[in-house]
């Protein structure tokens, strides 16, 4: 019954910005660690960022200082602010969730750790 719906993707020129949103229905959102992954054509799905239940802790993939993950538990929504976009950021971006009782540390980066996934939103960066 848990459903994740991403939005905010689109076509943007290199150097531009996008903010992705993921709205979660069902389940107890405040108990979920949330994450963003992305998958480019011909590539494996890779970790982008994760955030703890209360937003107090975040993890980012290497070389992704241009991105910021945040969440609004009242709105059951997680965001990914993407600035200074590059062509290599082009991918389908997926939102993921997992019930998390271990606190804000050691947020998982593995796809296998996440129980719920959205259908993805396409981000295309033109150069």
Describe what this molecule looks like in 3D:
By secondary structure, the chain is mainly β. Helices cover 0% and strands 50% of the residues. It has strands spanning 3-7, 10-13, 18-25, 32-39, 46-51, 58-60, 67-72, 77-82, 91-99, 116-117, 121-126. Strands 2, 4, 5, 6, 9, 10 and 11 form a seven-stranded mixed sheet that branches. A four-stranded antiparallel sheet has the order 1-3-8-7, with no helix packed on it. The chain is globular and about 40 Å long.
Count of DSSP-assigned helices: 0
Described by the principal axes of the CA atoms, the overall outline is globular
Sheet/helix structural class = mainly beta
Q: Any low-confidence stretches, pLDDT <50, length ≥5?
A: none
> Could you report the average pLDDT, rounded to the nearest whole number?
96
**Secondary-structure element order, N to C:** EEEEEEEEEEE
Helical residue percent band: under 10%
In terms of DSSP E residues, the strand content is over 45%
> What is the number of E strands?
11
Biggest sheet architecture: 7 strands, mixed
The whole-angstrom Rg is 14 Å
> Cα distance, first to last residue?
40 Å
In short:
With 127 residues, the chain is mainly β. The protein contains no helices and eleven strands.
SSE topology sketch:
Blueprint: E1 3-7, E2 10-13, E3 18-25, E4 32-39, E5 46-51, E6 58-60, E7 67-72, E8 77-82, E9 91-99, E10 116-117, E11 121-126
Parallel strand pairs: 2-11
Antiparallel strand pairs: 1-3, 3-8, 4-5, 4-9, 5-6, 7-8, 9-10, 9-11
């Amino acid at each position: 019954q848990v459903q994740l719906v991403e939005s905010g993707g689109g076509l943007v020129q290199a150097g531009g910005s996008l903010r992705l949103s993921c709205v979660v229905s069902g389940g107890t959102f405040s108990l979920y660690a949330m994450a963003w992954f992305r998958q480019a054509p011909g590539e494996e799905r890779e970790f982008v960022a994760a955030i703890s239940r209360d937003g107090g802790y975040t993890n980012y993939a290497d070389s992704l200082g241009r991105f910021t993950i945040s969440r609004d538990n009242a709105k059951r929504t997680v965001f990914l602010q993407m600035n200074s976009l590059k062509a290599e950021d082009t991918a389908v971006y997926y939102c993921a969730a997992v019930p998390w009782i271990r606190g804000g540390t050691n947020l998982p980066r593995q796809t296998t750790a996440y129980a719920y996934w959205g259908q993805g939103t396409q981000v295309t960066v033109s150069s």
